[in-house]
Amino acid sequence: MPTDRVRASVAALLQGDLPLAERPFAEVAKAAGTTEEAVLEELREMKAEGIVRKFGAVLRHQRAGYTRNSMVAWEVPEARCDEAGRIFASRREVTHCYRREPMFLGRYSVFTMVHFREGEGAGFLEELADRAGASGYLVLTSVEELKKTSMEYF
After folding, report:
1. Domain span at residue 93?
2. What is the mean pLDDT of residues 71-93?
């Protein structure tokens, strides 16, 4: 059974990129001073506990052609926030969806990040506003990325 030291070491090592190797977890195990099976067991436990949600590739969206990225603040009545959030979150163009308090400028309660390729998205926000029952929205377009990192917890 892995120890707390193994858990902390595995978690710290997996915050970054997986080693590009035939057996990446064996490489993680070597760096953590344990076995590949211990790393996999620890990951299974952390997944079962809800600590680890998933493993996946990180797509650099701008390099993939998704150059139109905007935060959208939605004016949604409080009674509709949960339903509107589900509608927003169901769309593949939406990568983040949050309800925030207090309301921004006293009227915007739900925030999303949307991503499009150049020439895409015409009419998307209007359609989404209608479906979600939003009476208005404010588009905050990214003009320059000043910092973007993943949080390091260990």
Report:
1. 68-141
2. 96
